[in-house]
Design goal:
By secondary structure, the protein is of the alpha/beta class. It is about 30% helix and about 25% strand. It has a domain at about 55-95 and about 135-195 and about 270-360: D-Amino Acid Oxidase, Chain A, domain 2, CATH 3.30.9.10. The strands form four sheets. Strands 4, 5, 6, 7, 14, 15, 16, 17 and 18 form a nine-stranded mixed β-sheet that branches. It has a six-stranded mixed β-sheet with strand order 9-2-1-13-20-19, covered by helices on one side. Strands 10-11-12 form a three-stranded antiparallel β-sheet, with no helix packed on it. The longest helix is centred in the first third of the chain and has 29 residues, at about 100-125.
């Protein structure tokens, strides 16, 4: 079959790779000149194989109150005269109950573990090198109450491989000696020994190169303008370089996907959730961590690769505004400097922002829409890299007319 994949972020690239493996003739449409140039470019770098949890949780309302009115708040809502933002926010808050959080967490951990297996398989098969590190991720806490609560929540995860080790500061320092610089900040943490880190952008470009070697055509520098619907099918995709048609279309356009779906009668509640990262050169610095770190108080993650220390975090509801707001980026920079004062050169930090394509329950939409040849593989929110390979494998099964080998319960495209 001829398949068009729209978008070459990490999600679309993985979908294209697996569709090609399933025997389809695949063309990818991407407005940038390479894969992984937008939200997949400078993210936190965590492959949360065993820690994929929805952001919507009972801690969010508490954090919103605690940090209310502060420009450096981990979660910040800039209310706009925009009904979609309000509705999305309300739906998100409804998913913050313990019951809904736990239910979604089980689905997401299942998908992330399948996705991790797929990632390891493709990494080996295609000899991908993306500065990966397989020495785990340590979640650190600044209060015993928060640590106890988090450890309690972990008990609901059924698969023992996804359970963490609860660690005190002595053990935390044995896992990551660089934390000694900030040992007074933390009481301990949860260590997920099997999670990994790496460079999502490099992963995307390496995977795109592998897909291209196998015959996937990447039409870079091509902008999708509209989907053309006739009856219950998409008959063409309108681009700035002309019309393209295919037997099936997979949409992975990140946060902008809904803008193309609405005109063809499909309304999905994906909203852009803006985040920031800072990347510091580490040459000459001796306090750079080697394990992935997640500070649960300020919600900043760090990862280290190729002479760089990356810190990422913050969530801001501000529509499609991609401006790098100094106060927000600097909050992340301050966070990493608190954790690792001699971890890298803050004066040469590169600031970046990206829009997470987020659904109100924080889980992706994977499957066929009410249009017979239009598929969605999108809405991966804060976990797009973690979930990309599993989602790609699953969508390739569905486009091929098979039942997905990966269990897609919880990710249905019509669940909202
Ligand atoms: C600060 C931050 C930290 C994060 N940390 C992590 C992490 O540690 N681990 C993790 O797993 N995830 C993380 N994420 C989430 C992850 O980065 C995203 O979920 C993921 O990148 C989404 O991938 P995507 O392919 O859906 O979207 P994108 O990467 O945005 O890809 C969409 C593509 O579609 C293209 N496109 C859009 N519109 C058009 C058009 N009209 N025509 C042609 N092309 C178009 C874009 O150019 C883009 O390349 C983080 C995100 C942020 C912002």
């Amino acid at each position: 079959m001829k398949v068009l994949v729209l978008g070459a972020g990490v999600v679309g690239t993985a979908a294209a790779y697996y569709l090609n493996r399933a025997g389809h003739e695949v063309t990818v449409i991407e407005r940038q000149n390479a894969a992984g140039m937008e939200t997949s470019f400078a993210n936190g770098g965590h492959v949360s194989a065993f820690t994929a949890r929805p952001w919507a949780s009972p801690t969010v309302p508490r954090m919103l109150v605690k940090w209310f009115g502060r420009e450096d708040a981990p979660y910040l809502v800039r209310l706009r005269p925009e009904l979609r933002q309000w509705l999305w926010g309300l739906r998100f808050m409804r998913n913050c109950t313990t019951a809904r959080h736990m239910k979604m967490a089980r689905h997401m951990v299942r998908l992330s573990m399948d996705s991790f297996e797929a990632l390891k398989e493709v990494r080996e098969r295609e000899h991908l090198d993306y500065d990966q590190r397989a020495n785990g991720v340590l979640h650190v806490y600044r209060s015993q109450k928060a640590l106890d609560e988090a450890a309690g929540g972990e008990r609901v995860i059924e698969d023992p491989r996804a359970r963490s080790e609860v660690v005190d500061m002595n053990r935390a320092l044995a896992i990551e000696p660089a934390l000694d610089q900030a040992r007074q900040l933390y009481v301990g943490g949860l260590y997920f020994a099997h999670d990994e880190t790496g460079d999502a952008h490099k992963f995307s470009t390496e995977l795109a190169a592998a897909a291209a070697r196998h015959g996937v055509v990447f039409n870079y520098g091509t902008t999708v303008r509209a989907l053309v619907r006739e009856g219950d099918r998409i008959v063409a995709v309108e681009t700035d370089r002309g019309r393209l048609s295919a037997d099936a279309v997979v949409l992975s356009l990140g946060a902008e996907g809904p803008l193309f779906l609405r005109p063809v009668g499909i309304d999905v509640p994906i909203y852009p959730v803006k985040g920031y990262s800072v990347t510091l050169p580490t040459e000459g610095y001796n306090g750079t961590p080697s394990v992935g770190i997640h500070d649960q108080e300020i919600r900043v993650v760090t990862s280290t690769y190729g002479g760089r220390l990356r810190a990422a975090g913050t969530a801001e509801l501000v529509g499609y505004d991609r401006t790098i707001t100094p106060s927000r980026a600097d909050a992340v920079l301050r966070g990493v400097m608190q954790m690792f004062p001699s971890g890298g050169d803050a004066s040469r930090a590169e600031r970046w922002t990206g829009l997470r394509p987020m659904t109100p329950d924080c889980a992706p939409l994977i499957g066929r829409t009410k249009l017979s040849n239009l598929y969605l593989d999108t809405g991966h929110g804060s976990l797009g890299w973690t979930l990309a390979c599993g989602s790609g494998r699953a969508i390739a099964d569905l486009v091929s007319g098979k039942k997905s080998e990966i269990d897609l319960t919880g990710f249905e495209v019509d669940r909202f």
